[in-house]
Write a structure and sequence with these properties.
Helix content: 25-40%
Oligomer: single chain
Number of helices: 5
Function: Ferredoxins are iron-sulfur proteins that transfer electrons in a wide variety of metabolic reactions.
Low-confidence stretches: none
Shape: globular
CATH architecture: 2-Layer Sandwich
Pfam family, one: Fer4
Number of strands: 4
Mean pLDDT: 97
Strand order of the largest sheet: 1-4
Keywords: 4Fe-4S, Electron transport, Iron, Iron-sulfur, Metal-binding, Transport
Cofactor: [4Fe-4S] cluster
Bound molecules: iron/sulfur cluster
Protein name: Ferredoxin
Order of helices and strands: EHEHHEHEH
Strand content: 5-15%
Radius of gyration: 12 Å
CATH class: Alpha Beta
């Protein structure tokens, strides 16, 4: 029952969740350092649609990432809102995993 980053990350994508994750299982298509190097106001324009994802086979469900997210984009997979359920698969797919 891993945590999942939904599409609401895109546009903010500040990598704060990745910085607090104790096992470094949060990644995305753009290096964290690159994302952090761009001012917040410009990130959504420079990297449209880019978000981070959680590796479902590595996440230990500690919950550390949830409260630090300014976009409220992170949920346990069982709590992902109905209209965002496809994002569970998107997280798994990014890492070549199957949804558990
Ligand atoms: S719940 Fe914990 S282990 Fe899972 S992604 Fe968030 S910080 Fe990392
Ligand atoms: S903290 Fe939230 S907005 Fe920032 S990268 Fe993580 S999921 Fe995206």
């Amino acid at each position: 029952m891993p945590h999942v980053i939904t599409r609401h990350c895109a546009g903010t994508c500040d990598t704060v969740c990745a910085q607090v994750c104790p096992i470094e299982c949060i990644h995305g298509p753009i290096a964290h350092a690159t994302l952090r190097s761009v001012p917040a106001a410009e990130r959504g324009v420079r990297f449209p649609g880019v978000q981070l994802y959680i590796d479902p086979d590595e996440c230990i469900d500690c919950g550390c990432c949830v409260d630090v997210c300014p976009a409220s984009a992170i949920h346990m997979d069982c709590d992902v809102p109905l209209e965002l359920r496809a994002d569970i698969e998107a997280n798994a797919r990014f890492f070549g995993r199957r949804v558990r």
